[in-house]
Write a structure and sequence with these properties.
NAD binding, D-2-hydroxyacid dehydrogenase, five-stranded parallel sheet, 2 domains, NAD, Rossmann fold, alpha/beta, about 325 residues, oxidoreductase activity, acting on the CH-OH group of donors, NAD or NADP as acceptor
Length: about 325
Amino acid sequence: MRDRLVVLYRGNRPPATALIERLADTVYATEEELHYLLPGADVLLAWVNITPAIREAWPDDPHKAPRWVHASSAGVDSFLFPALVDDPQVVLTNARGVYEQPTAEYVLGLILSLAKDFPGTWEHQRRREWRPRPSDSITGRTVLVWGTGPIGRAIARLLRAVGMRVSGAGRAPRTDDPDFGTVHGGATLRSALTEADYVVLAAPLTQGTRGMVDAPVLAAMKPGARLINVGRGGLVDEEALVDHLAAGRLAGAALDVFAQEPLPAESPLWNMPGVMISPHTAGETTSEREALVEVFLDNLTRHIEGRPLRNVVDKRRGYVVDGTHPA
């Protein structure tokens, strides 16, 4: 008997629907329809990343809940509600492997844009103004990457390759990490913040990381440093960030994620000097959709054949734990 698969989508369905339908009895649900179509499903493919619809549509009867949920994203905070997390029969997987290198490239682009003030150059071009001016060098600058998972590691490797001095911040302090060298924990984190020219956030959003970049952390950062967030908006106290930017303690920020998305038009972040805003696109590429569905199809084949799934999320921690590197 074939599995019943529900594909949650918004706007466009995933590519390769013919292949998906060949492997499972497939129905497609919008966020509004999910409440009616999810009960009794064996598998849920969430082609929508951040949505309350899954929590709201989750069956009260655990026997009617899907046994496997696949997130077409790296972050899974939208999926970590009690009914799913507490049910040991529900396996959660994600799209680990798709977003690492694109996000690392995006971070390098953001650092170069901030250091070279490309937005200012483009504004002078728009005004037809010829304004030669010096810019910062990134070679030898210090970067603290907060989040030592696969995305943080890809960022660290690329920034090291262009001559930046990189360390990490994570749950398990160490001095011999292959990608970061030193990974700072609670005892040395503040001193690392005082030395970093750039602080890059690449951590998942969990109960332990929510609001981790608060006013005291921002105050501990090196004067003139820049903050880059490609993790989750909930990692940062945005009001405190606005205050520190307005006071001139930080030189700028590049923000791809926000506590509320889309970022409200009235947010002061839109017009603050030295701040770059992007609409949660750090990991997106023109080939993203094909790569995402390839990961799911591989896992769907494994599921049908009874083989172990890839990218199984530790639902208590909120991310994939594979034992390759400490967190």
